[in-house]
Each structure stands twice: as C-alpha cells, then as structure tokens.
Amino acid sequence: MAAKLKVLFLITDIGKGGAERFLIDLCTELQRRGDVEFIIGSLFENNQYQEFTKTFPIVYLNYPLFSFLGKNECPEYKKLLNDFQPDVIHTNRFLAEFLSSFYVSYHIKYVCHGHDNMIQLDNFSLDKLGNKEKLLNFFEKQYLINKKYKKAATYFIANSSHTLAYYQRVLPNFMHQYIKLIEYGFNYTRFYKEKTNYWKEGEKIKLVNVGSFQAKKNQQLIIKIGEELRAMGLDFEINLLGDGGTRESIQAAVDASGLSDRILLHGNVDNVEEWLWDSHVYLHTAWYEPFGLVFLEAMAAGLPCVTLDGKGNRNLIEEGENGYMLFEEDAKAFAQRIDTLFKDQETYKRISTYSQVFSEKYDIKKSTDRFVDFYKSAN
Fold first, then answer.
1. 50-108 confidence digits (pLDDT tens)
2. Same domain for 166 and 210?
3. Residues 197 and 229 grouped into a single domain
4. Same domain, 180 and 274
C-alpha cells in the first residue's frame, strides 16, 4: 500500500474570505480521500469557520515579526516540519509564503497559491523609491528570490488567466516553468438548489451582493445603481452581506440617498446560501476581483450575475448566457441590464438554468482531483 502524500497548508489565519473558503472546501474533500494526509498551519490564532473546520488538524504557529537583519525563527513551525515531515508545502497568501522561506528543504515541493495578484511581487520601478511600502515589498521579493526560489523550486498557482499573466510578468524568467493555472473549486452541493422562486410580475426584485467592505469592492456603485432602479420605477431590494472598514461610510451614503429601506447591510452571515436561494440576481461591482468564487456560488443557486469587469472574473461570465459583464462604472447601464432580465421570463429562466450547469464544472471534487494530480506530478 502506497504511503499517503503529506501536504502542509500554510495560511495567515482562517478569517472570512475566498482563499479561506477554498481551503476549507479543499480540505473537506481531501478528508474523504485515502491518498492524502494534511495539516493546516495558521500563522495567527483566528478561526471564523469553526463549524466547518472542527475535524481539521490545525496548528497555530504564533508567527513572529520578521527582521531583515537577524535570523528569523518560528519554533512552532520548525517543530511542525520535524513532526509532520511534509512532502508538499502549499502556502496561501503572501505572509504564509514568507514563513515558508525560514527553513527551506530540497526534499519538499513548495506551492505558492497567491489567490490574487500579490502586489508584493510587483516589478521594481522608480516610484518605489518614494514609497516606503512599495520599497519594502521590493526588498521582501528579493529576499524570497535569494532565500527560497533560487534554492528550491516553488510552483506558483494562478486561479485565473489574469493572475497567470501577472505572475509571468513579475517573476524571474527561471521561475516561469513553475507557473501553473488551476482554477478554484467550491462546494457545489452546498449552494445548489433547484430554482423554483422565479420572479413573478408585480413581485419585488431581490438582488444580493457578497463581499468584504473595502475600497476595491466598490459598494458605492451599488448605491448609484439603486438610485437608477428607483428612477425607473422598479420595486427592488438589495441585500449586502459582509463587513469591513468601509461599511460605516457605505451605510451613511445609503442613508443620504434615501434608499435605506431598499439597500440593507447585514454584516457577515454564516448562511450565505440561504440568502442566495431567496434572491433573483447576484450584483457585483468590485473593480478588481482575482477570480470570483462568489459568482460560482450564486450561479449554483440559480442566479444570473450582473457584474463589473474585475479582470479575474472574465473567465466566469459568458455574456448573455450566465449573466452580464459591464466594462464601465455606469450605474444606468447596470440598471438596464437588471431590467432586461425581468422583461422576459423565458430569458431569465434560460440564464438561471445555464448558470447552474456552468458552475457545476467547478465542483470541489473535480478541483481536488486537479490539485492532487498536480501535487503528485510535482513531487
């Protein structure tokens, strides 16, 4: 009987976010298989997915502050390496990638899963000289190249063609052979439900948006779309799910627009799928989206997606088939697309049905097969 492949996942913490949701779905599926053993090493002790991770082996690593001048040590991580003896270390997010450089071994295959275009890897330019953060990013990149990438092959996983192109642009030429495109997967069965609550004439149109409240998510545009829908005389409700630094300012803008009875902020919720099942359209206005796991979740629930071009989500929207993508922040154009979906029930049903067919291709079972095959081929 062949020995199990040992995979150590490193991640900053297990907070709310797409990278964390993907890792949870991947590990849940790995537990059903007999050929892989895994441990999650969390740099910091924060787990907002207790319900979904209670059977996972998780080690909190108490990540220390990094220094360019002295020797960097993380005793908990070093002990984990010695005890578990991983075949593969799969890092998630930049800080986890940084930790993986502390103790590099030729016997381990390294996989870096950025989950977005990691700005820390961007190329040097003169404007960095006057920007402390960008200059620090440059030195951190050089540290990784010399401390890790020149010593041990590190595979970079891109989850979209946009991120793939970014890695090809910013990583040294000798690393290009290690850049791979493996798209996300998700728990299709959790979000799938046969669509029965199709919109009926005279019924309120329910739209939903899921995302953290930060500048790039651009919820301000949702308010403008709401104003356009109101001007068109449509009866609607937009539910915003998520939390973050810009939530208070968005709530203030909603109140100022007079739409506080139509645009509702609910904070983080655990039952996202139930909100999707109770909605008619998924609305997304982020100006940057490295992939867009939430689109697949919404499609599995039977929702057409109306979205701004976020670069990484281009792979997921087939125009007029599972939704619509707009390339300008034009609130009126958004409102018109939404109105189009409800002028012809047959069109809505066709798009809703195909959305579920399309999203099923990204089921986590299929994605897990791709990752395990990749781990074994890279090993």
1. 999 999 999 999 999 887 777 889 999 999 999 999 999 999 999 999 999 999 999 99
2. no
3. yes
4. no
Same domain, 178 and 274: no
pLDDT at position 378 is 63
Side-chain half-sphere CA neighbours of 230 within 13 A: 15
pLDDT, tens digit (0-9, with 9 covering 90-100), for 278-303: 999 999 999 998 888 999 999 999 99
Residue 128's pLDDT band (boundaries 50, 70, 90)?
Answer: low
Residue 250's domain comprises 188-360
Give residue 1's pLDDT.
54
Residue 379 reports pLDDT greater than 60? no
Whether 221 and 154 map to the same domain: the answer is no
